[in-house]
Amino acid sequence: MKIKWFIFFLSIMTISFIFYSFIEKKADPPIKIGVLLIGENRYEKLAGLKKGLADIGYKDKELTYIVKNANEQQDKLEVMITSLLNKQPHVIVTLGGIETVQLKEKLEKENLYIPVVFAGVAAPKELGLINDYRSPGGQYTGINNYHTSISGKRLELFKELIPSLKRVHLLYDEEIEVSRLSLQETVEAAGKLSLEVIPWNVADRSYKNKIAENIEENDGLLILPSFRIEALTEEFIQLIKKYYLPSMALYEHEVEKGFLAGHGASFYEQGYQAARYVSSIVQGNAPKDLPVELPDNIRFMINKQVSEQLGVTLNHEMLSNAELVRLKEPDKGVKDK
Questions:
Q1: For the whole model, what pTM was predicted?
Q2: What's the CATH architecture for 151-264+303-324?
Q3: CATH topology match: 31-145+267-289 vs 151-264+303-324
Q4: Model confidence over 219-230: pLDDT tens digits?
């Protein structure tokens, strides 16, 4: 009798092993997520995206990330896009405006349909990516990081923070539409504030010399959205330190590196928020039916260490409403959050 029971259980175990081996072999292949970025700074968005999908419940083995980085070279983006499309991803996540616009041009040229989630783009409707914020109507949806729309507000906060501010040097990128739109918003706000602003185009490499020739007492510096401006952070920090310029940025990492203040949605949080869209598309929803969202959180940050170094007097009421950020030592070989 014992031998019969032993044979019975052995048979059950053998059948179970064969069954589960068969199931595992038949398991769905990993979901291929294409990721397109213009440069290193935007890896923070990828870190947020991965964490967001993990928090939703996706396991590492269920996802494959195909990452293409143009390393701050706009002319290399097209090559990266072609390489990415050859991998046939199920969905593509673009980590900024220039990536999304150039991908759109390629998809239209090749007449390809692949769902695209933009993890933070300023003015997606104005760029022609969507028809409407509630009903995008195409193959694109994602996060409007609102950085163009709040450019005027950023200048207003800068003036409130430093009451002695008389003029502001605006750094923008003439070659990037979002940057031009942001400049327009900022100039309009300056008129309402009766504040003088001087625009400088960073695509003109003589901009630093021109600023140096025009700096006066009680001047400040404010940067506007552009991938090229993101890549020039260290250059701006040198300018700020050399001429003791109070400065306003967009992102936390810029304030950590030496800008006085910042106002915007962080790279990491934009990526994290975009994970919801990727999950929804993977589950069968179409981008055209997924409303574009604003950032979950827009931060106002101040670096008090920088204010002390500059010797500038800040509005104490503004300090109580801000998130205090400290100078951060340069990372040593660490790229992802």
A1: 0.86
A2: 3-Layer(aba) Sandwich (3.40)
A3: yes
A4: 999 999 999 999
